[in-house]
Design a protein that fits this description.
The structure holds two protein chains of two kinds. Chain A is mostly helical. In chain A, helix 8 (157-181) crosses helix 10, helix 10 (198-232) packs antiparallel against helix 12 and helix 11 runs antiparallel to helix 12 (253-281). Chain A has helices at residues 2-6, 11-17, 34-54, 59-77, 85-116, 124-139, 142-153, 157-181, 185-193, 198-232, 240-249, 253-281. Chain B has a domain at 1-27 and 35-78 and 212-281: 3-Layer(aba) Sandwich (Rossmann fold), CATH 3.40.50. In chain B, strand 7 (166-170), helix 7 (178-195) and strand 8 form a beta-alpha-beta unit. Chain B is α/β, with parallel strands linked by helices. The chains are: A mainly alpha, B alpha/beta. At the A-B interface, helix 9 and helix 10 of A face helix 2 and helix 4 of B.
């Protein structure tokens, strides 16, 4: 080592970096000041302690709840598909119709909105408009939108259809726009260099690059819409959620269990088939 | 054929990519554009078809002032300029045939391109070009299923499908192995000779440039610092273009390889070719 240091070759570069002793190295911390690190850590811990302390837990209510939960589980063990079968069928039909129609309509609206919200394709005013639409569609949770539409269009699956279409646009248009912004620019550049027009650029340069993801996301959204249709039914937007809500209100946990099992089965079927579709369109 | 006058480009970041570049490319001449990374080679050829908007100067394609065109006129002008890219820039998920036919996008209406119903003449031409570049049997494969050399051949076919009057070629061999690079350069050379096409080739491989181009323009920091025959690239000139470096190793190898290349394409460097090279001197 000493020998190395004594080398006459460019001594100023070597001597400053290499020393004879073994060196230790630590990753530079995110917050440089040690005191500040400790203060922030202690503060977070104190807040968490007080926050947990402020939760009021009623042990009696919890005990009663456990009993109800047990009855629910018992219902699950003996699901009753028979006594409310026709109601379940109607609810399922409504939900599936709602899911499919809202996904199709949502995708059809999402495509132009998504293209408009892609910075690399749209002009600034169009971009701002489409981003605004997306922000609006994303800022409200499905249940809140459903309450609004139920108030506007009355109880039933039409309100659910509108809710899910609206939510689909918020979800799909945003992700599509981001995918379009990530396309390989060299491919679109090559298409522009041929003298292609804007529509041809979309059709030849962009569509082939984003199509697999668009199809995958649509399948995923179909899945989400079905699950959401069960939730928004509770606030009156029709479908299997309404049936489930009625069964719960009547303490018919066996029928409720039958409905939940059917929902799980359908979601799993959708999951399996969408995985298959995605593999196929790659 | 192509005349560039006082071309300037300043990017929004303030980087001056091109400062007062002027030169002309006559019909049938292959001009190699060499220079260090960031010298503005890529910007220069993209200014010609306005994929990059120049900030000053003029570009003439025969008598057409490309820099003054409206959007729709620009589309028409771009049809006349074929472009070949560094990473091939094929649309990966489209078939080879769709990629070649996309060279006709500037000529056909949207519905035809959307329905993939190209006029029979365009399809015939596409098949003929695929045969010419040697990938006819791959026509229905997806572009991402091809090897690098095959993809660049498709890239060449796409550019020719436009019936171009000028070829812009951006680092055609940068992602290819040495053998394939030479094959592609030879193909480009032959095709330009067949059609009397002028071309500008950005190329960073000086040895390859010397073997395959008629003329070399050296660019450094956005300015033309050399314009002459490839065999005039002496160590002094290379230093002027690229900066100080020991060029002797390159030079001895390059002489050998240039001889190789000459004997390899002895078949295509016949009378007209030699005359053109001589007339440049």
């Amino acid at each position: 080592m000493a020998n190395w240091n004594a080398e006459p070759v460019s001594p100023e570069t070597h001597a400053s970096v290499v020393s004879a002793a073994a060196q230790t190295w630590r990753r530079p911390p995110l917050i440089r000041s040690r005191a500040l690190r400790w203060i922030l850590g202690a503060g977070a811990l104190t807040y968490l302690t007080f926050a947990l302390g402020s939760l009021e837990v009623s042990w009696l209510r919890l005990y009663q709840g456990l009993e109800r939960g047990w009855r629910f589980i018992q219902g699950f063990l003996l699901p009753d598909f028979v006594s409310r079968w026709s109601d379940i069928m109607i609810g399922m039909q409504e939900s599936l119709t709602m899911t499919l129609t809202s996904t199709v309509v949502g995708v059809l609206i999402s495509v132009p909105v998504g293209i408009g919200a892609a910075r690399n394709l749209a002009s600034p005013p169009v971009y701002l408009l489409c981003r605004g639409v997306i922000a609006l569609a994303r800022s409200f949770q499905e249940i809140i939108v459903a309450i609004l539409f139920v108030a506007m269009f009355g109880f039933g699956p039409f309100a659910g259809f509108l809710t899910l279409s609206f939510a689909t646009v918020g979800f799909l248009a945003k992700l599509l726009a981001e995918d379009i912004e990530d396309v390989d620019e060299s491919q679109t550049e090559a298409i522009r260099a041929t003298g292609a027009g804007w529509w041809q650029l979309i059709n030849y340069g962009v569509q082939p690059q984003v199509m697999p993801r668009l199809i995958g996301l649509s399948c995923y959204r179909l899945d989400i819409n079905f699950r959401e249709s069960a939730v928004i039914g509770i606030v009156g937007a029709g479908g299997i959620g309404a049936t489930l809500n009625t069964a719960m209100d009547r303490y018919e946990y066996d029928s409720a269990a039958a409905i939940l099992i059917l929902i799980i089965a359908i979601v799993m079927a959708a999951e399996y088939s969408s995985g298959f579709v995605r593999k196929w369109v790659k | 054929m192509l005349r560039i006058e006082h071309l300037r480009k300043r990017y929004r970041t303030g980087d001056e990519a091109l400062r007062d570049v002027s030169f002309t490319v006559p019909r049938g001449q292959i001009t190699g554009l060499i220079g260090p990374s960031g010298a503005g080679k890529s910007t220069l050829i993209r200014c010609v078809n306005r994929l990059v908007e120049p900030t000053g100067g003029r570009i003439f394609l025969d008598d057409l002032n490309v820099t003054a065109l409206s959007r729709s006129q620009l589309r028409k002008a771009r049809r006349r300029i074929g472009m070949i890219f560094q990473e091939f820039a094929l649309v990966e998920r489209l078939t080879v045939m769709e990629n070649v036919l996309s060279g006709r996008l500037g000529y056909v209406p949207f519905w035809r391109s959307f329905a993939r119903r190209y006029p029979p003449g365009d399809v015939d031409k596409a098949f003929a070009l695929l045969e010419r570049v040697g990938v006819l049997d791959q026509a229905d494969k997806r572009a991402d299923a091809l090897s690098g050399g095959q993809r660049q051949r498709v890239g060449v076919a796409r550019a020719l499908e436009q019936d171009p009057e000028l070829l812009l070629i951006d680092e055609p061999t940068a992602s290819l192995d040495p053998k394939t690079s030479r094959q592609i350069m030879r193909l480009i050379r032959e095709i330009c000779a067949e059609r009397n096409l002028p071309a500008i080739i950005n190329i960073h491989d000086v040895v390859l440039a010397q073997a395959f181009v008629d003329r070399v323009v050296g660019l450094r920091a956005g300015e033309v610092v050399f314009d002459g025959l490839p065999n005039a690239l002496s160590p002094e000139v290379l230093t002027r273009i690229y900066g100080e470096e020991d060029w002797t190793t390159l030079h001895s190898r390059q002489d050998r390889e240039a001889d190789d290349a000459r004997s390899l394409d002895g078949r295509e460097i016949v009378d007209g070719e030699l005359e053109r090279r001589a007339s440049l001197a």
